[in-house]
Every structure is written in C-alpha cells, then in structure tokens.
Amino acid sequence: MLAKIDWNKVPKPAADLADYSGFPTWNVLALQPGTEPRAADYLKLFNVHAYLPTFQRRVRARAGKCQHRTCAVLPGLLFLPTDYVAAAGARMREMLDLARVRDFMRRSGGEPWVMTKAQIERIQIIESKLNRPESPVDARAQEIRLNSKVRFIEAATDQLFGEAKIVEVVSFNRIGVEIGTLFGRPCKVYVPASEIEVM
C-alpha cells in the first residue's frame, strides 16, 4: 500500500513549465513492464507531465470475445521532461517512489540518460502510426518471421534504435522488435511494419 500523500509537500512546477509543451530534453524512467499507465497517473497527481507512448491491442477475453487493451509502445519505459526533474529537486525521488518507478535509465558513467525533443518526436510518429486503423496496404510486402533481423527505413529512427530482431507479431502491421543497444540494454519496441525492413 502506498504512503499517504502530503499535498503541502508536493512540488509544483513553475508556471512557465505548465504552459510549455515543447520540452527540449527528456529523462528516461525504468519501470516494471505493465505498470506504465499507473505510474504516469501517479505523476499526474503531482502535476508532472510524463509521456507514455501507447497503442490499442486486440486481445482475446473470456468466452472467445475480443477486447482492446492499451499497451506501451516501449514496455517498461516512461519519459519525463528534465525541466520537471530540475523543478522538483530533492523531492523527485519521493515522487518516483510513490509512482513505483525503479530509477532513471543511466549511462555507463552513472548520469541519467537524456533524450532530445527530436528523438521524442520520432517515438510520437511511431505511436501515431500504431494507432491508425490497420490496413493491409500499410504493411510492406515482406516476409515477417520471428527472430528475423530488421533495420528501420527512416534514417532518424534507424539512428535512434539501430538494428533489431523481431520477437513478436501482434498483427500484420504491428510488430514487436527487440533492440539490443537502446539505453544500454535490450529493449522491446512495438513498431508498424511499414517502418522496418527485413535484412
């Protein structure tokens, strides 16, 4: 059970942060996969904007019925503007503990991993493509098989993610790939089939 929140001690972002939507740099938070929406909701209680890229996935429910479930595009990861981290100061660790965030993703030297606005916008493009209604026309004419090595077609996405391998086929146009070098560890990312090319 979470500790009771003392709302008088909750840090509030500066007024200019609340109105600013184009944050220049972002920290990457590591969480237990599947807990991302709850963590983002807890951070909203503190007036902290966290970006959680999601898409709708069709899953089989009881009695053979299907339902839609919201899934993270990057399971186990959440993105937080560095402006909020600076504004919260020492209270940030307490806020992250209440949201059940493990820690910041860190580089080999120990400093938190920082993403640029352009990199976050690449993830937003992937998210928007995953949330479009599926159409066979959108899927590239290629043979998608598990464990196939793939590369990203867009240069900016390829530079961000690098080479990957297919680990899950959600549908004909939604593919789960594992990237070995993202944030210094293997990471799963869901992408549209139109973004990748089998090598």
Oligomeric grouping of the chains: single chain
Distance between the termini: 48 Å
Low-confidence runs = 13-20
Shape: globular
CATH architecture of the largest domain: 2-Layer Sandwich
Description:
- The chain is of the alpha+beta class and 199 residues long.
- The protein folds into two domains: 20-131, NusG, N-terminal domain (Alpha-Beta Plaits); 134-199, Ribosomal protein L21 (SH3 type barrels, Roll).
- The protein is built from six helices and eleven strands.
- It has helices spanning 15-19, 36-45, 82-88, 92-98, 117-130, 155-161, and strands at 25-30, 54-60, 66-72, 77-81, 103-104, 114-116, 149-152, 164-171, 174-179, 187-192, 196-198.
- The strands form three sheets. A five-stranded antiparallel beta sheet has the order 10-9-8-7-11. Strands 1, 4, 5 and 6 form a four-stranded antiparallel beta sheet that branches. It has a two-stranded antiparallel ribbon with strand order 2-3.
- Mean pLDDT is 83; it is low at 13-20.
SSE blueprint:
Elements: H1 15-19, E1 25-30, H2 36-45, E2 54-60, E3 66-72, E4 77-81, H3 82-88, H4 92-98, E5 103-104, E6 114-116, H5 117-130, E7 149-152, H6 155-161, E8 164-171, E9 174-179, E10 187-192, E11 196-198
Antiparallel strand pairs: 1-4, 1-5, 1-6, 2-3, 7-8, 7-11, 8-9, 9-10
Which characteristics define this entry?
5-stranded antiparallel sheet; Alpha-Beta Plaits; 199 residues; 6 helices; globular; 11 strands; SH3 type barrels; 4-stranded antiparallel sheet; 2 domains
